[in-house]
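Hi everyone, sorry if this is the wrong subforum. Our group has a chain we'd like a structural model of before ordering constructs, and none of us has done structure prediction before. Sequence below.
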Amino acid sequence: MKVFSAAPDVKALETQLADVKKEKEAAVTAQEFEKAAEMRDEERRIEKEINDKKKAAKENSDAKLVVTDEDIASVVAQWTGIPVSKSHRKNLNHYYT
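Answer:
Right subforum, don't worry. Here is the predicted structure as C-alpha cells:
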C-alpha cells in the first residue's frame, strides 16, 4: 500500500519554520517588535512555500493509493494476531471446498 509522504525538502522547511517561530517568540518577549514582524513575515513565507510544495507533490504524484488483498490480509493479521497470508488462505480454501 502506497501512502503520500512529505518530501525531504518539506521536512527541512518545517524545521526551519519551527526555528523561525521560536525566534519570533523570543523577539516578542524581548520587545523587539520590528524583528518579531520580520520573523512573522518569514514565517508566512515559509508556510506558503511548504503548502505550495505539498500541493505540487500531491498533484504530480503518479501513484494512486492501491489496496490489495495482501494489504488487507496483513492488516487483519496485525490486528488479530491470526496469520492470513496467501499460503494460509490456500490451505483454508482446501478445507472448505
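For your construct planning: The mean pLDDT is 82. The CA atoms of residues 37 and 87 lie 63 Å apart.
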